[in-house]
TrEMBL record:
A Pfam cross-reference name: EndIII_4Fe-2S
Boundaries of every HhH-GPD domain copy: 45-196
Protein name in UniProt: Adenine DNA glycosylase
UniProt-listed SMART domains: ENDO3c, FES
GO BP field: base-excision repair; mismatch repair
The protein's Enzyme Commission number: 3.2.2.31
GO MF term set: 4 iron, 4 sulfur cluster binding; 8-oxo-7,8-dihydroguanine DNA N-glycosylase activity; adenine/guanine mispair binding; metal ion binding; oxidized purine DNA binding; purine-specific mismatch base pair DNA N-glycosylase activity
Organism: Blastococcus xanthinilyticus
InterPro entries reported for this sequence: DNA_glycosylase (IPR011257), Endonuclease3_FeS-loop_motif (IPR003651), HhH-GPD_domain (IPR003265), HhH_base_excis_C (IPR023170), HhH_motif (IPR000445), MIG/MutY (IPR044298)
Domain of life: Bacteria
CDD domains per the UniProt record, alphabetical: ENDO3c
Keywords annotated in UniProt: 4Fe-4S, DNA damage, DNA repair, Glycosidase, Hydrolase, Iron, Iron-sulfur, Metal-binding
DNA sequence: AAATCGTGGGC
DNA sequence: TGCCCAAGATT
């Protein structure tokens, strides 16, 4: 267990909340009165996808499906189309499945219990707490990659975020303000600090509200020790091929034959393997006459 | 538990 | 240009 540092445990959280009041971005899912469903949609879209790309899709999505029941009643193919090019389209499928679960098991209301939230498809440890906190106004520690990076630097004096651990929740809870309403804002505020100031590549320490409390700065900005985390390749991978195939099917008005998918990728074996994996994932469906389409 | 799963913008 | 990175979840 980490004991809260006296240097940090009083002031840092309060300072970060005050900074947020002046520096926060005006994002639509932060509008006062947005319901937990709107927050859930935003959180799933934001998993590994930048804010700028999410914003227009989120607006269109909420116009079209303002409630879980509305999304639950929609065929998966339409949902995949509306997801557009946000990436990782299995998230669209899972969000629809979550909407169905909410409708069938929770009377159409997004649950406020972290465990019930985490039981929903596509909702993991981060998203469950984010919805409980930002959507339901609960005091909850919320830990994403931004928060892990801020804690690594501010608290532990290290340059880079450690991989997720159970102790992350205690680390961030130790910094949270006592007042519940401020603690709720603290959870967004730390994420915002990590997104705008304490960024991965070139941290803007000159603009940081807690630079005088920062263990990393006080230690002289030591470089990261140990192996650099390997970045995922993309070009030529199945991920790229799946994306190409889905791109063709999203654009198609009607089911297409195998020949129509050939331009998506030259290597026939890889193309076939990826098409098969898309079928397995339920992102593509084959009609009775052998044509391919987004699932109906 | 390491690998897999899209996409595009910034440097 | 090519690499790095972005509010993770799942198996």
């Amino acid at each position: 267990m980490t004991s809260p540092s006296p240097r940090l445990s009083g002031p840092a959280g309060e300072v970060i909340v005050d900074w947020y009041a002046t520096a926060a971005r005006d994002l639509p899912w932060r509008t006062p009165g947005v319901d937990p469903w709107a927050v859930l949609v935003s959180e799933v879209m934001l998993q590994q996808t930048p804010v700028a790309r999410v914003e227009p899709v989120w607006r269109a999505w909420m116009d079209r499906w303002p409630t879980p029941a509305a999304l639950a009643a929609t065929p998966p193919g339409e949902v995949i189309r509306a997801w557009g090019k946000l990436g990782y389209p299995r998230r669209a499928l899972r969000l629809r499945e979550a909407a169905i679960a909410v409708t069938e098991r929770h009377g159409g209301a997004v649950p406020d219990d972290v465990a019930a939230l985490q039981a929903l498809p596509g909702v993991g440890t981060y998203t469950a707490r984010a919805v409980a906190c930002f959507g339901h106004g609960q005091r909850q520690p919320v830990v994403d990659t931004n928060v892990r990076r801020v804690v690594a630097r501010l608290v532990h004096g290290r340059a880079e975020a450690a991989p997720a651990r159970a102790s992350d929740l205690a680390d961030i809870s130790a910094l949270a303000p006592r007042d519940d309403a401020r603690a709720v804002r603290f959870s967004v505020a730390v994420m915002e600090l990590g997104a705008l100031v304490c960024v991965a590549r070139t941290p803007r320490c000159g603009a940081c509200p807690v630079r005088d409390l920062c263990a990393w700065r006080l230690a002289g900005y030591p470089a990261h020790e140990g192996p650099a985390r390997r970045v995922q390749t993309f070009t030529g991978t199945d991920r790229q091929v799946r994306g190409r195939l889905l791109d063709v099917l999203r654009a198609a008005e009607q089911p297409v034959d195998a020949a129509a998918l050939e331009p998506a990728w030259d290597d026939a074996a890889q193309r076939a393997r990826c098409l098969d994996s898309l079928l397995t994932d339920g992102l593509v469906e084959q009609t009775s006459d052998g044509l391919f389409t987004l699932p109906t």
